[in-house]
Write a structure and sequence with these properties.
This protein is mainly α. 50% of the residues lie in helices and 2% in strands. The chain is globular and about 50 Å long.
Length: 194
């Protein structure tokens, strides 16, 4: 029996973290682990993953639309141009995580994102250049406890981005970004979304 939302069948096997929350299931089935090459989407995940630091992903996922409104529909040029007035507006926005360091970090990251676009032609080219042959890494995950919180590759990307000045992009957040954008596929081997 399929659900009206277009998700996989109700009794499909999924990664256990997807749970029973329909928003989480939709994200799991339609986005997580799917390769992303669009800079706008990569920027969106950069903002969202940075906001997630120290929090659960579902906390951010439930606020995603609020982030979209608060951060100019994830238009990197607009976010990079945010001023102190915008920071104060964001600090008063109950729909997002109101952490001044994270808000300022998002603006800093937007400016650095543009620098990378200028240097490499796109942020996508930069990120995917770290992956062997520019192809998603397909891990063989039999149980969720096999999923690492970080890898040597996430260490390397994070180190390079930190050297460039990026905020809230340590190796664990970097690995989560890689999973979210399909640079790495950590779906269970028997998962319906693999």
């Amino acid at each position: 029996m399929t659900q009206d939302s277009g998700l996989k069948t109700k009794d499909s096997i999924r990664c256990t973290w997807a749970g029973s929350d329909l928003l989480y299931i939709k994200y799991h089935d339609e986005e997580w682990g799917k390769p992303v090459y669009d800079d706008k989407v990569l920027f969106e995940f950069l903002i969202l993953e940075g906001a997630q630091a120290g929090l659960s992903w579902i906390t951010i996922l439930r606020r995603r639309e609020n982030y979209r409104k608060a951060f100019a529909n994830f238009e990197v040029q607009k976010v990079a141009a945010f001023t102190e007035k915008d920071v104060e507006r964001l600090m008063n926005d109950e729909g997002i995580i109101r952490n001044r360091l994270k808000v300022n970090g998002a603006i800093t990251n937007a400016r650095l994102f543009i620098e990378i676009q200028q240097e490499f032609g796109s942020f996508s080219k930069y990120m995917w250049s770290f992956v062997p042959d520019g192809k998603p890494i397909l891990n063989h995950i039999e149980k969720m406890s096999d999923v690492p919180p970080r890898t040597e590759l996430s260490d390397r990307i994070s180190k390079d981005m930190k050297k460039r000045g990026f905020k809230f992009f340590g190796t664990t957040i970097c690995y989560a970004h890689m999973q979210a954008t399909g640079m790495v596929n950590d779906h269970l081997l028997n998962c319906c979304a693999r």
